[in-house]
């Protein structure tokens, strides 16, 4: 299998995203290796050694995705027995011309602590945890968004993703069996109605997920799941709560759709 | 301020990472706009309209970062009154030649649900929540890693990030004041010693963080914070637990360093 290396002087997240976006276009499997924090000439030489060994072992030159801008490191990596891809160098010159400003490369640019954004994110994680699953119904005035939906429709992972990635304070409140007789927005949520965002899910997928957690229960029964989904969707439509079916969506996609529909302010870009 | 647009037929996360990595090289501020899920010609025309309006309003052509490969969408975006950057097109041809395989572009490639990886991640999030802050000391045999450290040294956000991004099951256990008299690895952690990873933090930063939560308490006192940090670092060294000072690191950086040091298997790449 062809090896792919993602290397950087920071987390290498940018190199990973860059490499994956490209490799995902090809109907092949790759062996992935990430080497973060290559910050010194010594570390670069060590990395070169690893890459060259991999090349020898497999008989095929590895694909190396990096974003180094420091010349002394870049030269070492570029001299590996590998196919080198660095998207920055293709775009720096045109951008410099366009902006009329010279690039000022610094290490640890993109995924390190920036003033402001860091505390926002940790605060948002703490908020999401304290306000998960209806944990604190008197704290919604601080929420940026309140996700509602039946149990296992994706509220908790989405709340945490909103917090960790964007510093957005997301509470979530579950509609349970007890709410279903005459489902309505609870009083303590009514005054925050503009912050509500509904999640829903196909009944069959919900049955499967709940079955894996608690098989042969009312909670996971087909009848119960179908009823709960039907009732919450009726509520969303009646109350004009924006909502989203999460069945085929990843956490990233659910989050992107919520951000796009609500025009929520991100604290980190 | 110059406007930057990040556009895609999926979450636009790749376009954002691509654009940010480039723009972070320049000592300037930008206005950021993300437009995800541009999947149809109609949506592309709507997006073009937004970009052209922004161009007119500011008198400067916006910078547009995209990763479209579908020709009918790409042509519309490329015809905007804007400076267009698409890193894919620079690399597809060389990669095709290198791999001897034609690229097979699909929409929603990189941040959508892939078989396997999705359930891993949700399971890992549930695991992290159930095993946060020493919540369940009898469940460590399922942990991939167990983060230990004093309160507010970064354990919880890191556990959640490991789960959400990589599907890694991270428990975390806090050393509290009660443990400090004769700090040692608790019995229930001893048999999982190989999974332990320690976090530490500069005492002054810890004082600040704790002071923000609970000012004028023993918990946030300089003396207490200094003592706790000193004791856990002594323990890490004595027991040869790998550890990391999180003071100046983002969650992404802490995670990348843990992955790199422990060689933990990622469930999602």
Termini separation of chain A (Å)?
A: 36 Å
From N to C, what is the helix and strand string of chain A? EHEHEHEHHEHEHEHHEH
Fraction of residues in helix of chain A: 40-55%
Average the pLDDT over all residues of chain A and give the rounded result. Answer: 93
Q: How much of the residues of chain A is beta strand, in percent?
A: 5-15%
Strand order of the largest sheet of chain A: 2-1-3-4
Q: What is the oligomer described by this structure?
A: homodimer
Brief synopsis:
The structure is a homodimer of 269-residue chains. Chain A has two domains: 98 residues, Rossmann fold (3-Layer(aba) Sandwich); 146 residues, Rossmann fold (3-Layer(aba) Sandwich), CATH 3.40.50.
Q: How does this model look, in words?
A:
Two copies of one chain form a homodimer. Chain A has 269 residues and is α/β, with parallel strands linked by helices. The first copy, chain A, has two domains: 2-99, Rossmann fold (3-Layer(aba) Sandwich); 117-262, 3-Layer(aba) Sandwich (Rossmann fold). Helix content of chain A is 45%, strand content 14%. Chain A is built from ten helices and eight strands. In chain A, the strands form two sheets. The first copy, chain A, has a four-stranded parallel sheet with strand order 2-1-3-4, with helices on both faces. In chain A, strands 6-5-7-8 form a four-stranded parallel sheet, sandwiched between helices. In chain A, helix 2 packs parallel to helix 3 (71-78), helix 5 packs antiparallel against helix 6 and helix 8 crosses helix 9 (222-238). The two termini of chain A are 36 Å apart. At the A-B interface, helix 1, strand 2, helix 4, helix 5 and helix 6 of A face helix 1, strand 2, helix 4, helix 5 and helix 6 of B.
């Amino acid at each position: 299998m062809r090896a792919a290396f993602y290397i950087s002087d920071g987390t290498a997240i940018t190199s990973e995203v860059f490499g994956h976006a490209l490799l995902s276009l090809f109907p092949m499997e790759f062996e992935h290796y990430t080497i973060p924090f290559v910050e010194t000439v010594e570390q670069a030489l060590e990395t070169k050694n690893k890459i060259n060994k991999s090349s020898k072992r497999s008989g095929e030159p590895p694909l190396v995705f990096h974003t180094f801008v420091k010349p002394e490191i870049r030269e070492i990596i570029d001299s590996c027995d590998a196919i080198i891809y660095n998207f920055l160098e293709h775009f720096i010159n045109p951008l410099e011309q366009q902006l009329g400003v010279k690039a000022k490369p610094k290490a640890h640019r993109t995924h390190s602590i920036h003033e402001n954004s860091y505390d926002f994110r940790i605060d948002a994680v703490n908020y999401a945890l304290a306000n998960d699953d209806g944990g604190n119904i008197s704290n919604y005035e601080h929420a940026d968004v309140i996700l509602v939906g039946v149990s296992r429709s994706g509220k908790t992972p989405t709340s945490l993703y909103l917090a960790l990635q964007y510093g957005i304070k997301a509470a979530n409140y579950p509609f349970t069996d007890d709410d279903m007789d005459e489902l309505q927005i609870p009083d303590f949520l009514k005054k925050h109605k503009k912050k509500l965002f509904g999640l829903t899910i196909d009944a069959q997928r919900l049955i499967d997920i709940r079955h894996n957690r608690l098989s042969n229960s009312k909670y996971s029964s087909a009848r119960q799941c179908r009823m709960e989904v039907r009732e919450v969707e009726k509520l969303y439509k009646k109350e004009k709560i924006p909502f989203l079916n999460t069945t085929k969506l990843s956490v990233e996609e659910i989050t992107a759709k919520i951000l796009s529909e609500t025009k929520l302010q991100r604290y980190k870009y």
